[in-house]
């Protein structure tokens, strides 16, 4: 079982490797903020009495972090992971996306965790002043920065309005730490819906350096609802996820 970036000499995540048939572009790694393990959906799999398939898998052999957090945060984290899968450009031998954890540093989305391990990596406070959070994050961020090389950009898909992710990561990545400009003023649900729309349209957001950026602003207009499943079926698409039918504000 993979526990942290520091234990993986050559981590790979097949879902976010660059398509070598396309023209080469600059490397880009996404850093995803974690799902809320104290939420209602998290309780559906983390409570000892739950008997759903995922809850049983979590207690027995484990579940990949990406799959688990996408269930817990079925719009926001799911949108972040889908976006990273679509647009990451991983340097050779590296993963194109990493999940920030409260006390386990950076982990790749395919890291399999059991219930005990999940509780362990999520037990700290996401607070830059808390060593339980900061020490493993600083360690893994430094390792990732060194392995990725000087030409790689790091895009934070998470809150930029507060210091909880920005301060630790900015210290390591400096001017190479970017974020989507379209995140400014949006709440979590709106960001998740926006990223799912980008995946659907194959259009990327606008990445700008966090350093000296304006990270708060006026709330942008409400997103239009994603196309209903019936219309997508009529257009011949078979890529249907029932959760896509809801607008961000409904979830």
How does the helix and strand content classify structurally?
A: alpha/beta
Tally of strands: 8
Radius of gyration: 18 Å
Strand content: 5-15%
The low-pLDDT segments are 9-21, 228-251
Taking all residues together, what is the mean pLDDT? 83
Measure the end-to-end span: 33 Å
Count of domains: 1
What spatial order of strands do you see in the largest sheet? 4-3-1-6-7-8
Kindly state the percentage of residues in helix.
25-40%
Q: How do the helices and strands follow one another from N- to C-terminus?
A: EHHEHHEEEHHEHEHEH
Strand count, sense and barrel status of the largest sheet are:
6 strands, mixed
Number of helices: 9
Shape: globular
Task: Give a structural overview.
By secondary structure, the protein is α/β, with parallel strands linked by helices. It has one domain. 36% of the residues lie in helices and 11% in strands. It contains nine helices and eight strands. Strands 4-3-1-6-7-8 form a six-stranded mixed β-sheet, with helices on both faces. Strand 3 and strand 4 form a beta hairpin.
């Amino acid at each position: 079982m993979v526990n942290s970036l520091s234990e993986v000499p050559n981590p790979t995540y097949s879902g976010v490797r660059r398509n070598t048939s396309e023209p080469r572009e600059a490397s880009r790694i996404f850093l995803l903020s974690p799902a809320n393990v104290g939420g209602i959906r998290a309780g559906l799999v983390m409570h000892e009495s739950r008997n759903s398939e995922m809850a049983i898998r979590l207690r027995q052999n484990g579940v990949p972090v990406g799959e688990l957090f996408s269930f817990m945060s079925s719009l926001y984290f799911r949108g972040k992971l889908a976006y990273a899968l679509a647009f990451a450009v991983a340097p050779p031998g590296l993963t194109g996306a990493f999940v920030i954890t409260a006390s386990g540093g950076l982990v790749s989305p395919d890291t399999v965790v059991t219930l005990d391990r999940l509780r362990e990596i999520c037990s700290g406070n996401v607070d830059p002043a808390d060593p339980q959070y900061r020490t493993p994050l600083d360690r893994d961020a430094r390792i990732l920065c060194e392995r990725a090389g000087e030409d790689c950009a790091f895009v934070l898909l998470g809150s930029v309005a507060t210091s909880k992710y920005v301060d630790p990561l900015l210290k390591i990545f400096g001017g190479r730490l970017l974020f989507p400009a379209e995140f400014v003023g949006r709440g979590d649900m709106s960001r998740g819906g926006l990223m799912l729309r980008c995946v659907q349209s194959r259009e990327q957001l606008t990445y700008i350096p966090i350093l000296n950026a304006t990270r708060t602003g006026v709330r942008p207009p409400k997103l239009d609802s994603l196309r209903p499943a019936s219309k997508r079926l009529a257009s011949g698409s078979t890529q249907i996820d029932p959760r896509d039918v809801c607008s961000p504000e409904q979830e």
